[in-house]
Write a structure and sequence with these properties.
The chain has about 180 residues and is α+β, with helices and mostly antiparallel strands. Helix 2 packs across helix 3. It starts with a helix and ends in an 8-residue tail after the last strand. The C terminus is likely disordered.
Length: about 180
C-alpha cells in the first residue's frame, strides 16, 4: 500500500488533511491494500482506521519533507516496485526483493518500508551489496522507512569515485517494471 501511495500520489500530499477529498483518496488506497486479504477479514474496519491514522501522522511529521525530496519528479528517471534480484555470494544464491527502487541520474535509492523499526539489518545490507555489484560506478543509498512513528533513516550510502573497478560477480536481474 505504501508503495502505491507514493508512486501514484495524485497530489494527495498537498491536500488538507481534514478535507473530504483527502479522506476519500486515502480510503481508496487502503481498500486496495485490504482487498488482497480474503474475506471475511474480521478486523477490516480497525485496520482501515489504523492505516488512515498512520498515513495522517506520516504527513504531519517533520520527517516527511525529507522523504518527499526523494521523489522530486524532475530527478526521477524510473521507479521499480519490488524488483527481484539474484546474485551469488559466498557460494550461496541470494534472492532479494526490496520494496522500492528509485533511479536518478548516477544514483540508485532503495527504500525498505516497515511498520515499526524492527527489521533484519542484513536484509538492507544485501540490497546494498547487490546494487553495488551491478552498478559499481553509481551512487547508492539505502533507506529504512518506518511508519510508527514515521522516520526515514539512511542506512547505507556509497558515493562512487570515478574509474572505480566494476564487479565480476555473477548477477541475474529480471527486467524491472518501470512504474513512472
Amino acid at each position: 500500500m505504501w508503495e502505491l501511495l507514493l508512486i501514484y500520489k495524485e497530489s494527495v500530499f498537498s491536500l488538507p488533511l481534514d478535507s473530504e477529498e483527502f479522506k476519500s483518496k486515502i480510503e481508496i488506497y487502503i481498500k486496495k491494500a485490504l482487498a488482497s486479504y480474503q474475506e471475511p477479514l474480521p478486523q477490516r474496519k480497525y485496520l482501515s482506521e489504523r492505516a488512515f491514522n498512520i498515513i495522517k501522522n506520516m504527513l504531519k511529521s517533520e520527517e516527511f519533507q525529507k522523504f518527499k525530496e526523494l521523489f522530486v519528479e524532475s530527478e526521477v528517471l524510473a521507479v521499480y516496485k519490488e524488483p527481484e534480484g539474484f546474485f551469488v555470494e559466498e557460494n550461496q544464491i541470494q534472492d532479494l526483493r526490496p520494496d522500492l527502487i528509485i533511479k536518478k541520474p548516477n544514483e540508485w535509492i532503495i527504500l525498505e518500508f516497515k511498520l515499526h523499526r524492527e527489521f533484519e539489518e542484513s536484509q538492507l545490507e544485501r540490497y546494498f551489496s547487490l546494487l553495488k555489484k551491478v552498478f559499481p560506478n553509481d551512487n547508492i543509498k539505502v533507506y529504512l522507512i518506518s511508519f510508527e512513528p514515521f522516520k526515514i533513516e539512511l542506512k547505507y550510502c556509497k558515493i562512487s569515485k570515478p574509474d572505480e573497478p566494476s564487479s565480476l560477480y555473477p548477477v541475474q536481474l529480471p527486467l524491472f517494471k518501470n512504474l513512472n
